[in-house]
Amino acid sequence: MEKEELINELTIIVSPYAQDAEALAHIQEDTDFIRDLKINSANLVDVVLDVEEKFGIEIDNDSMARMLTVKAAIRIIEEKLAAGAGK
Amino acid sequence: MTAQEIVSKLPYSKPFLFVDELLHIDENGSTGTFTYDKDLDFYKGHFKDSPVTPGVIMTETMAQIGLVCLGIYLYGDSNAEMKAHVMLTSVAVDFMKPVFPGEKVTVTAEKVYFRFKKLNCNVVMTNEAGETVCKGNISGMVTAKLQ
Fold first, then answer.
1. Residues B107, B32: contact at Cβ < 8 Å?
2. Domains of chain B: residue spans and CATH
3. Which of A63, A79, A87, B64 is deepest in the core (most CB within 10 A)?
């Protein structure tokens, strides 16, 4: 999946939880879920669960802790998809 | 952890403890009861001359029996030396029937998920006639404090 396509998918997932419409409209790789989009820690869990469902992957605790920006989320999704494809 | 141990770990006391009995608890959910004493202070003002249990109090009752008891149970299973602390993060509840002073209610919660410290439950409250008075979805973060 292309990076742009991944960002689009992520944007759809975070939309219901993002409190900052302006930051959401300008979402890019460096966008921070908590600092920029003002997503709280409880809703960040829902973002991760929605990512799991959308991409058919399982996110472990370590990955969850790292998944704070769009860039980090894309890297984790790509890693998990690659690991799954290799099985 | 037994139901009695969980009730003893609840961080509330009168007039803000809304759990009388925890009838059942396991990893998938909890059931408990509470009777709203007709002398509870809020009935004096909700409403003037016609006391009805406030929806926020019913919501709190659902959260204490459902979310908090279950959170303490689920957390305590894996971390004996730490004390679970449950912080409410979201609530969506529909109200069907009023609950009057002196009524006993039963709350049943079913876990939807408990992941990355977030517990999400579907919760139903019924009256003594077995009618659903309110139902909804409640979630919170289960964190820890040293005992």
1. yes
2. 3-146 (3.10.129.10)
3. B64
**At residue B91, what is the residue type?**
V
Find, in chain B, the residue whose alpha carbon is nearest to that of A40: B89
Exposed e or buried b per residue across B66-78, where buried means at least 16 C-beta atoms within 10 angstroms of its C-beta: bbbbbbbbbbbee
Q: Give domain limits for chain A.
A: 3-85
pLDDT (tens digit, 9 = 90+) per residue, A22-50?
Answer: 999 999 999 999 999 999 999 999 999 99
Total beta-carbon pairs less than 8 A apart between chain A and chain B: 19
With beta carbons under 8 A apart, name residues in chain A contacting B89: 40, 42-43
CATH 1.10.1200.10 fits A3-85, yes or no: yes
Taking CB atoms and an 8 Å limit, are A42 and B141 in contact across chains? yes
pLDDT digits (tens, 9 = 90+) for B49-100: 999 999 999 999 999 999 999 999 998 866 667 788 999 999 999 999 999 9
The residue among A49, A50, A60, A18 whose CA lies nearest residue A35 is A18
